[in-house]
Amino acid sequence: MSPLETSTSKEEYDLMEGNEAIAEGAIRAGCNHYYGYPITPQNELIEYMARRMPESGGVFLQVESELAAIHMIFGAAAAGGRAMTSTSSPGISLMLEGLSHLAAAELPCVVVDIMRAGPGNANIFPSQSDYFLATKGGGHGDFHNIVLAPASVQEMADHVMEAFYLAEKYRNPAMVLSDGVVGHLTEKVRFNDPKPSPASKEWCVTGARGKTRHVVKSSLGIEPLCEAVNLKIHQKYEDLKRNHTLHDTFFLEDAELVIVSFGIASRICRKAIRLAREEGLRVGLIRPITLFPFPSGIIAETAERGCRFLVVEMNLGQMLEDVQLAVNGKANLDFFGRAGGVVLSPDEIAEAIKKSYAGKAH
Amino acid sequence: MIATRPKLFIGPPLHYCPGCSHGIVHRLLVEVIEEMDIREQVVGVAPVGCAARIHMYLDIDFVKASHGRAPAVATGVRRQLPNHHVFTYQGDGDLLAIGLSEGLNAAIRGENILVVFINNATFGMTGGQMAPTTLAGQWSTTTPEGRDVVKTGYPIRYPEMIASLPGVTLATRCAVDSPANIRKTKKTLKYAFGLQKTNPGFALVEILSVCPTNLHLSPAESLDWLRKEMVSYYPLGDIKKPTEGTEDAE
């Protein structure tokens, strides 16, 4: 998945906004339940769904809150539906209870978080400050969300489709983690065919005709039973790590300074890297595409080469910690970030690159 | 008061759209608080919605709540400040969608707070999605074919809904579409603040309002729409009010 390079294909493309591309991509992937609540900056998604979902025969409902939405997702998924909701940062906090229950009950679903500044109501400007929440599970207990981080409108479409596939394969919530910039970009997009559904859903509740009845639940039993479920879930993540970790690189081969950045920040970094390369600085980029599972492997390999790292995010250091773990003390690491809804500029990243390159920690 | 601005009104400029009812109700609140001389004994709780910025225009203490939680926040304030006036100012999404539980539970407890409920039948701040008070058949960005009550339920008549709760002292509905109605609304607000001392309990003043931007009508057309479309479904007047010298039925 490296759709940031321009295509010379003569196939047809649509011109769409990021938020709408997620909605359309979801429907093409067979999403037949959307429950959501308006919140800036992703209202275009719910409004697109209001028009398009009834057309495609699925369920659209604007519900009373994000808390209600995630529990309706739970019900729809338990009964065998392909369910999705979307929100922004203040709303994702309300969904954390639901995510924990969905993971425990081993239900597939897709949750879209179009990030804005935090904490609290903060403001409506873009940020990347839900990284911890998204990748560490967010809700209580030993679990993770599968997390994809699109950086373009094409990836908004591709990642939501992949999210449905992975959610069903692993019976776990999958999150598309984007932000108010990519959500509002208008770019060309082509909707690819979705992968076939990875598993049959004999576990779901549809009335126990001709089979043993099923109970979908997040209560996991006394300690040994509960531990067994936790270990089973943990094993899923091990398989996910081996088979579905994704990343992208840019000018990595000869890089002495390696930026690690995801989503919109990585795109702005590409511009800064071009500026730096013009001045002869050998800078490259590793872009995590799945944030969980995190592409530690490529970072660890690169650290062995003697590179210096610069982590760039629109937060005050969240993915930074995963990079630090992957680097494992084998290389020097700098950080540059902005918070509160400030969108990074190529110039300030170029300044940070120069400082890093000169070996000054900052 | 002839053509003066109340001292406690610390706008302008206000951020609201031309024809928005928030400006009118903000002013009424400020006049009431000044006339009753209760500035130092009042705490307001602000919502999420266009009126999240009410605190910028009224020179009184405010707490900003997260979406829908104002009645819960007001409960905490009230329990800490038993002798103050405590009010929330909420829109239809804040009070009746995400905040339905907090509002109802405050009413059930008979929490001594005043809820000023601005009903404009839309989600204004986020661009005109369906609200719990959007009328049957009404267009919104998430009901582009008009609100279908089979799929989404009927609009909520809130004062009627909570009137049966013993903890509710006042449940009433006003409008701000005309000078006469604006004056009545002011009287009602003043009365409701006074009740916090004489008949402590949950008071709800619903105020029929307009959002011309999301109605896609001019301010004047919006007020006509309010009169023609809203009042027949949301009738004006007292649904519940304390009776002289008797206690509310248990």
Per CATH, what is the topology of the largest domain in chain A? Rossmann fold
Percent strand of chain B: 15-25%
> C-alpha Rg of chain A, in Å?
20 Å
Structural class of chain A: alpha/beta
Give the CATH level 1 class of the largest domain in chain A: Alpha Beta
CATH topology of chain B: Rossmann fold
How are strands sequenced across the largest beta sheet of chain A? 3-2-4-5-7-6-12
Superfamily at the CATH H level of the largest domain in chain A?
A: Thiamin diphosphate (ThDP)-binding fold, Pyr/PP domains
Q: Figure out the total of helices of chain B.
A: 9
Mean pLDDT of chain A: 94
Proper CATH architecture of the largest domain in chain A: 3-Layer(aba) Sandwich
Shape of chain B: globular
Choose one word for the global shape of chain A. globular
Sheet with the most strands, sense and barrel status of chain B: 7 strands, mixed
Unreliable stretches covering 5 or more consecutive residues of chain A: none
The biggest beta sheet of chain A, please?
A: 7 strands, mixed
What's the domain count of chain B?
A: 1
Could you characterize the architecture of this molecule?
The complex is a heterodimer of chains A (362) and B (250). Chain A has 362 residues and is α/β, with parallel strands linked by helices. Chain A has 2 domains: 14-244, Rossmann fold (3-Layer(aba) Sandwich); 247-357, Rossmann fold (3-Layer(aba) Sandwich), CATH 3.40.50.920. Chain A has helices at residues 18-28, 43-55, 66-78, 89-104, 131-135, 153-170, 223-244, 263-278, 296-304, 319-327, 346-357; strands at 14-17, 33-36, 59-62, 83-87, 109-115, 146-148, 173-179, 186-189, 247-250, 257-260, 283-288, 290-292, 308-313, 333-337. In chain A, the strands form 3 sheets. In chain A, strands 3-2-4-5-7-6-12 form a 7-stranded mixed sheet, sandwiched between helices. A 5-stranded mixed sheet of chain A has the order 9-11-10-13-14, with helices on both faces. In chain A, strands 1-8 form a two-stranded antiparallel sheet. In chain A, helix 6 (153-170) links the parallel strand 6 (146-148) and strand 7 (173-179). Chain A is globular. The mean pLDDT of chain A is 94. In chain B, helix 2 (70-80) packs parallel to helix 4 (100-109). Chain B contains 9 helices and 7 strands, in the order H-E-E-H-E-H-H-E-H-H-E-H-E-H-H-E. Chain B is globular and about 50 Å long. Helices cover 35% and strands 16% of the residues of chain B. The chains are: A alpha/beta (362), B alpha/beta (250).
